[in-house]
Amino acid sequence: MLGEPELGRRCEGGVDVPLLVWRLPAPVLAISSAVVGGGLGECRWVVNATVPMSYDRDDPADHLGEIAGGLGLDGPGVGLLTGVDVADVVRTNDGGVRLWATVGLGTPIQAAAPPGGAPEPVGTVNVVAWVPQRLSAGALVNAVATIAEAKTQAIRDLGLAATGTATDAACLVCPLDGPEAAYGGPRSDWGARLARAAYAAVRRGGSVPWPDRQR
Fold this sequence. Notes:
The chain has 215 residues and is α+β, with helices and mostly antiparallel strands. Helix content is 23%, strand content 31%. The protein is built from 3 helices and 8 strands; from the N terminus they run E-E-E-H-E-E-E-E-H-E-H. It has helices at 60-70, 137-157, 189-206, and strands at residues 6-12, 15-32, 39-50, 78-82, 90-94, 97-103, 125-130, 169-174. A hairpin with a 2-residue loop joins strand 5 (90-94) and strand 6 (97-103). Helix 2 (137-157) runs parallel beside helix 3 (189-206). The longest helix is centred in the last third of the chain and has 21 residues, at 137-157. The model has no long low-confidence stretch (mean pLDDT 93).
């Protein structure tokens, strides 16, 4: 089971910044869009780390490796970065699903925007979620899409004409063994619970003004 994360702190560019770390008692199966641990595979830890708004490193995977090493983490894991203060993580539960979201909507975008335009400043929605039954590979892919759909629904209900931000990421984990659930869409058993949990977390987190979320 994915339990509550530890809240730690580190010095980054002369600034004291927080991070969340999940130290897993046993390996799990993860699917993620994160810069570290992206894709589908075994996972032994998850980190969601705040970086200053002045962050300009072009090697985030190496940076996350340094953070993981400093925490004594080894083996495969998932690492996420955000300009949001992760101490303000929003937690939701729904029928066995557990979900944590750090919500930064400083620069919401439409996914299918016209080409060109200036680069957007940092603003990230990171979601980490646990489902207590093993999901098939197809169900995992579908479940990530379900989380994204619920996130967009919450953002729209917050009054923003947007689908998310340019740097959103998700990590979904489930047991490595046991009978597989075949579906993860919004009307499947686990997908419906994920959708409700993601919607509630993003809606709640997005209701706090962005300047109060950033570092």
